[in-house]
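WARN no homologs supplied; continuing
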Amino acid sequence: MLKMTKYLFNEEISDWKSWGKVYQSIPAFEKLAKEIMKREGLPFSYLERLTPGTNAVFKIGEHVIKIFAPKETGMDQTSDEATERFAIKFAGSLGVNVPKIVACGMIKDRYTFSYTVMKYINGYEIGKALNGSDGEKLFTLGKKLRVITDKMNISCQNFNGIDVINDPDRSRRWETFPLSFQKERQEYIKKHDYGKPVFTHGDLCADNVFLTNQNVLFIIDFADAVAAPDCYEGALIAFEYRDYPDFLRGYFSKDDKELALSSVFDGILIHDFGGDIVKKAIGNTASLQKLDDLRHFIMKNII
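OK structure emitted
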Protein backbone atom coordinates (compact mmCIF):
# COMPACT_ATOMS: atom_id res chain seq x y z
CA MET A 1 0.00 0.00 0.00
CA LEU A 2 1.41 3.36 -1.06
CA LYS A 3 2.07 5.85 1.70
CA MET A 4 0.53 9.26 1.00
CA THR A 5 2.91 12.19 1.38
CA LYS A 6 1.65 14.89 3.69
CA TYR A 7 2.38 18.41 2.57
CA LEU A 8 2.13 21.74 4.35
CA PHE A 9 0.89 23.34 1.13
CA ASN A 10 -1.75 21.30 -0.68
CA GLU A 11 -3.06 23.52 -3.46
CA GLU A 12 -2.44 22.67 -7.12
CA ILE A 13 -0.12 25.05 -8.99
CA SER A 14 0.36 24.44 -12.70
CA ASP A 15 0.60 27.92 -14.20
CA TRP A 16 0.33 31.62 -13.38
CA LYS A 17 -3.47 31.52 -13.38
CA SER A 18 -3.60 28.77 -10.76
CA TRP A 19 -1.14 30.73 -8.59
CA GLY A 20 -3.37 33.78 -8.87
CA LYS A 21 -6.24 31.81 -7.35
CA VAL A 22 -4.39 30.87 -4.16
CA TYR A 23 -1.59 33.35 -3.46
CA GLN A 24 -3.75 35.45 -1.11
CA SER A 25 -5.29 32.45 0.65
CA ILE A 26 -4.59 32.27 4.37
CA PRO A 27 -5.78 28.63 4.70
CA ALA A 28 -3.50 27.61 1.80
CA PHE A 29 -0.34 29.12 3.33
CA GLU A 30 -0.91 28.95 7.08
CA LYS A 31 0.86 25.63 7.75
CA LEU A 32 3.73 26.50 5.42
CA ALA A 33 4.26 29.91 7.01
CA LYS A 34 4.12 28.40 10.50
CA GLU A 35 6.84 25.90 9.60
CA ILE A 36 9.03 28.63 8.08
CA MET A 37 8.75 30.77 11.21
CA LYS A 38 9.52 27.73 13.38
CA ARG A 39 12.65 26.93 11.38
CA GLU A 40 13.82 30.53 11.64
CA GLY A 41 13.20 30.65 15.39
CA LEU A 42 10.59 33.38 15.02
CA PRO A 43 7.24 33.64 16.81
CA PHE A 44 4.07 32.62 15.01
CA SER A 45 0.60 33.89 15.82
CA TYR A 46 -1.70 34.00 12.80
CA LEU A 47 -1.67 35.26 9.22
CA GLU A 48 -3.15 38.56 8.11
CA ARG A 49 -3.54 39.57 4.49
CA LEU A 50 -1.58 42.53 3.17
CA THR A 51 -2.02 44.45 -0.08
CA PRO A 52 -1.69 41.86 -2.85
CA GLY A 53 1.17 41.98 -5.32
CA THR A 54 2.81 39.15 -7.25
CA ASN A 55 3.87 36.88 -4.41
CA ALA A 56 2.19 35.57 -1.26
CA VAL A 57 2.66 38.23 1.43
CA PHE A 58 1.22 38.05 4.94
CA LYS A 59 1.66 39.78 8.29
CA ILE A 60 2.54 37.56 11.24
CA GLY A 61 2.66 39.57 14.45
CA GLU A 62 5.65 41.92 14.16
CA HIS A 63 6.86 40.32 10.95
CA VAL A 64 5.95 40.14 7.27
CA ILE A 65 6.56 36.95 5.33
CA LYS A 66 6.89 36.96 1.56
CA ILE A 67 6.66 33.55 -0.12
CA PHE A 68 7.76 33.72 -3.75
CA ALA A 69 5.85 32.04 -6.56
CA PRO A 70 7.43 28.64 -7.37
CA LYS A 71 8.76 27.69 -10.81
CA GLU A 72 5.57 25.72 -11.56
CA THR A 73 3.82 29.05 -12.17
CA GLY A 74 5.93 29.47 -15.31
CA MET A 75 7.52 32.60 -13.88
CA ASP A 76 11.11 32.42 -12.64
CA GLN A 77 11.23 34.54 -9.48
CA THR A 78 14.96 33.97 -8.89
CA SER A 79 15.86 37.36 -10.32
CA ASP A 80 13.15 39.13 -8.30
CA GLU A 81 14.41 37.55 -5.08
CA ALA A 82 18.03 38.51 -5.71
CA THR A 83 17.01 41.98 -6.87
CA GLU A 84 14.92 42.70 -3.80
CA ARG A 85 17.57 41.57 -1.36
CA PHE A 86 20.31 43.56 -3.07
CA ALA A 87 18.09 46.63 -3.48
CA ILE A 88 16.91 46.74 0.14
CA LYS A 89 20.50 46.54 1.32
CA PHE A 90 21.67 49.17 -1.18
CA ALA A 91 18.87 51.65 -0.47
CA GLY A 92 19.23 51.13 3.27
CA SER A 93 22.95 51.93 3.05
CA LEU A 94 22.00 55.31 1.57
CA GLY A 95 19.86 56.23 4.57
CA VAL A 96 16.51 55.32 3.02
CA ASN A 97 13.97 53.80 5.43
CA VAL A 98 13.42 50.23 4.21
CA PRO A 99 12.14 46.96 5.71
CA LYS A 100 14.65 45.07 7.83
CA ILE A 101 15.23 41.54 6.53
CA VAL A 102 15.47 39.09 9.43
CA ALA A 103 15.52 35.79 7.52
CA CYS A 104 15.49 34.38 4.03
CA GLY A 105 15.75 30.90 2.63
CA MET A 106 14.03 28.05 0.84
CA ILE A 107 11.63 25.32 1.91
CA LYS A 108 10.90 22.14 -0.04
CA ASP A 109 7.33 20.95 0.24
CA ARG A 110 4.88 20.00 -2.49
CA TYR A 111 6.72 22.77 -4.36
CA THR A 112 9.98 24.49 -3.56
CA PHE A 113 9.27 27.94 -2.12
CA SER A 114 11.78 30.71 -1.53
CA TYR A 115 10.89 33.17 1.20
CA THR A 116 11.93 36.35 2.96
CA VAL A 117 10.86 37.42 6.45
CA MET A 118 11.02 41.13 7.34
CA LYS A 119 10.11 43.33 10.26
CA TYR A 120 6.63 44.80 9.93
CA ILE A 121 6.48 48.55 9.37
CA ASN A 122 3.90 50.07 11.68
CA GLY A 123 2.32 52.51 9.28
CA TYR A 124 -0.05 52.70 6.34
CA GLU A 125 0.10 53.11 2.59
CA ILE A 126 0.59 56.71 1.56
CA GLY A 127 -2.53 56.59 -0.58
CA LYS A 128 -4.61 56.65 2.59
CA ALA A 129 -2.87 59.84 3.67
CA LEU A 130 -3.33 61.54 0.30
CA ASN A 131 -7.09 61.15 0.29
CA GLY A 132 -8.56 64.04 2.23
CA SER A 133 -5.27 65.84 2.93
CA ASP A 134 -5.01 69.55 2.25
CA GLY A 135 -2.71 71.04 -0.37
CA GLU A 136 0.03 71.92 2.08
CA LYS A 137 0.31 68.37 3.43
CA LEU A 138 0.26 66.91 -0.07
CA PHE A 139 3.01 69.31 -1.15
CA THR A 140 5.12 68.33 1.88
CA LEU A 141 4.68 64.61 1.26
CA GLY A 142 5.67 65.06 -2.38
CA LYS A 143 8.85 66.88 -1.34
CA LYS A 144 9.64 64.11 1.16
CA LEU A 145 9.36 61.45 -1.52
CA ARG A 146 11.65 63.50 -3.78
CA VAL A 147 14.28 63.66 -1.03
CA ILE A 148 14.17 59.87 -0.89
CA THR A 149 14.45 59.34 -4.64
CA ASP A 150 17.31 61.82 -4.84
CA LYS A 151 19.12 59.72 -2.21
CA MET A 152 18.48 56.50 -4.11
CA ASN A 153 19.01 57.63 -7.69
CA ILE A 154 22.80 57.48 -7.67
CA SER A 155 25.27 55.67 -9.89
CA CYS A 156 25.00 51.92 -9.41
CA GLN A 157 26.19 48.68 -10.98
CA ASN A 158 23.78 46.84 -13.25
CA PHE A 159 22.85 44.42 -10.47
CA ASN A 160 20.33 42.28 -12.38
CA GLY A 161 21.48 42.58 -16.00
CA ILE A 162 18.34 44.38 -17.23
CA ASP A 163 18.74 46.87 -20.09
CA VAL A 164 15.69 49.12 -19.83
CA ILE A 165 16.31 50.76 -23.20
CA ASN A 166 17.38 47.96 -25.53
CA ASP A 167 15.60 44.90 -24.12
CA PRO A 168 12.92 44.06 -26.76
CA ASP A 169 10.67 42.37 -24.18
CA ARG A 170 10.15 45.72 -22.46
CA SER A 171 8.21 46.99 -25.49
CA ARG A 172 5.40 44.46 -25.23
CA ARG A 173 3.20 46.73 -23.11
CA TRP A 174 3.06 49.19 -26.04
CA GLU A 175 1.78 46.63 -28.55
CA THR A 176 -1.84 47.84 -28.31
CA PHE A 177 -0.85 51.34 -29.39
CA PRO A 178 -1.04 52.49 -33.03
CA LEU A 179 1.85 51.25 -35.16
CA SER A 180 2.81 54.82 -35.99
CA PHE A 181 3.27 55.55 -32.28
CA GLN A 182 5.18 52.32 -31.63
CA LYS A 183 7.59 53.02 -34.49
CA GLU A 184 8.23 56.61 -33.43
CA ARG A 185 8.79 55.51 -29.84
CA GLN A 186 11.39 52.95 -30.88
CA GLU A 187 13.21 55.49 -33.04
CA TYR A 188 13.16 58.07 -30.27
CA ILE A 189 14.59 55.90 -27.51
CA LYS A 190 17.35 54.60 -29.81
CA LYS A 191 18.52 58.10 -30.69
CA HIS A 192 17.90 59.89 -27.39
CA ASP A 193 20.79 60.34 -24.96
CA TYR A 194 19.44 58.99 -21.68
CA GLY A 195 22.68 59.43 -19.77
CA LYS A 196 24.25 57.06 -17.29
CA PRO A 197 22.03 54.66 -15.31
CA VAL A 198 21.34 55.09 -11.60
CA PHE A 199 19.69 52.94 -8.97
CA THR A 200 15.89 53.17 -9.12
CA HIS A 201 13.13 51.51 -7.10
CA GLY A 202 11.04 51.30 -10.25
CA ASP A 203 7.56 51.10 -8.73
CA LEU A 204 6.94 53.85 -6.19
CA CYS A 205 3.17 53.59 -6.40
CA ALA A 206 1.05 54.35 -3.34
CA ASP A 207 1.14 50.68 -2.25
CA ASN A 208 4.93 50.75 -1.93
CA VAL A 209 5.33 53.96 0.06
CA PHE A 210 4.43 53.72 3.75
CA LEU A 211 3.80 56.60 6.14
CA THR A 212 4.23 56.13 9.89
CA ASN A 213 2.32 58.00 12.58
CA GLN A 214 5.45 60.14 12.97
CA ASN A 215 5.14 61.18 9.30
CA VAL A 216 8.22 59.19 8.29
CA LEU A 217 8.22 57.59 4.84
CA PHE A 218 9.32 53.97 4.35
CA ILE A 219 9.86 52.33 0.98
CA ILE A 220 8.91 48.67 0.47
CA ASP A 221 8.82 46.02 -2.30
CA PHE A 222 12.04 46.45 -4.29
CA ALA A 223 11.40 43.55 -6.69
CA ASP A 224 11.24 45.96 -9.67
CA ALA A 225 14.42 47.84 -8.78
CA VAL A 226 16.69 48.39 -11.76
CA ALA A 227 19.65 50.44 -12.95
CA ALA A 228 18.04 52.98 -15.27
CA PRO A 229 18.22 56.65 -16.33
CA ASP A 230 17.10 58.93 -13.49
CA CYS A 231 13.98 59.98 -15.45
CA TYR A 232 12.69 56.41 -14.99
CA GLU A 233 11.69 56.92 -11.34
CA GLY A 234 9.85 60.21 -11.63
CA ALA A 235 7.91 59.19 -14.73
CA LEU A 236 5.98 56.48 -12.91
CA ILE A 237 5.44 58.76 -9.92
CA ALA A 238 4.01 61.49 -12.15
CA PHE A 239 1.41 59.18 -13.66
CA GLU A 240 0.61 57.25 -10.48
CA TYR A 241 -0.08 60.41 -8.43
CA ARG A 242 -1.67 62.49 -11.19
CA ASP A 243 -4.88 62.83 -9.14
CA TYR A 244 -2.89 64.75 -6.50
CA PRO A 245 -1.43 67.81 -8.28
CA ASP A 246 -0.22 69.37 -5.02
CA PHE A 247 1.73 66.21 -4.26
CA LEU A 248 3.36 66.37 -7.69
CA ARG A 249 4.09 70.07 -7.26
CA GLY A 250 6.02 69.11 -4.16
CA TYR A 251 7.82 66.25 -5.85
CA PHE A 252 8.86 68.33 -8.86
CA SER A 253 9.40 71.60 -6.94
CA LYS A 254 13.15 71.50 -7.69
CA ASP A 255 12.52 71.42 -11.45
CA ASP A 256 11.09 73.98 -13.83
CA LYS A 257 8.04 72.89 -15.79
CA GLU A 258 9.87 72.16 -19.02
CA LEU A 259 12.48 69.99 -17.27
CA ALA A 260 9.77 68.05 -15.43
CA LEU A 261 7.78 67.54 -18.64
CA SER A 262 10.83 66.27 -20.54
CA SER A 263 11.83 63.96 -17.70
CA VAL A 264 8.38 62.39 -17.38
CA PHE A 265 8.03 62.02 -21.16
CA ASP A 266 11.45 60.41 -21.58
CA GLY A 267 11.03 58.14 -18.58
CA ILE A 268 7.60 56.74 -19.33
CA LEU A 269 8.71 55.68 -22.82
CA ILE A 270 11.30 53.28 -21.36
CA HIS A 271 9.56 52.23 -18.16
CA ASP A 272 8.74 48.54 -17.90
CA PHE A 273 5.13 49.40 -17.00
CA GLY A 274 5.04 52.44 -19.33
CA GLY A 275 2.56 51.19 -21.91
CA ASP A 276 0.11 49.94 -19.27
CA ILE A 277 0.44 53.14 -17.24
CA VAL A 278 -0.26 55.38 -20.23
CA LYS A 279 -3.13 53.18 -21.39
CA LYS A 280 -4.75 53.39 -17.95
CA ALA A 281 -4.35 57.16 -17.92
CA ILE A 282 -5.75 57.92 -21.38
CA GLY A 283 -8.18 55.02 -21.85
CA ASN A 284 -8.16 54.96 -25.65
CA THR A 285 -4.72 54.13 -27.06
CA ALA A 286 -5.89 55.07 -30.56
CA SER A 287 -5.77 58.72 -29.48
CA LEU A 288 -1.97 58.53 -29.45
CA GLN A 289 -0.91 58.45 -33.08
CA LYS A 290 2.46 60.14 -32.50
CA LEU A 291 4.79 61.01 -29.62
CA ASP A 292 3.64 64.64 -29.58
CA ASP A 293 0.16 63.40 -28.60
CA LEU A 294 1.64 61.84 -25.47
CA ARG A 295 3.76 64.89 -24.73
CA HIS A 296 0.65 67.09 -25.00
CA PHE A 297 -1.30 64.77 -22.67
CA ILE A 298 1.44 64.94 -20.03
CA MET A 299 1.66 68.72 -20.30
CA LYS A 300 -2.12 69.20 -20.04
CA ASN A 301 -3.02 66.55 -17.45
CA ILE A 302 0.04 65.87 -15.31
CA ILE A 303 2.78 68.49 -15.29
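The CA atoms of residues 165 and 270 lie 6 Å apart.
OK
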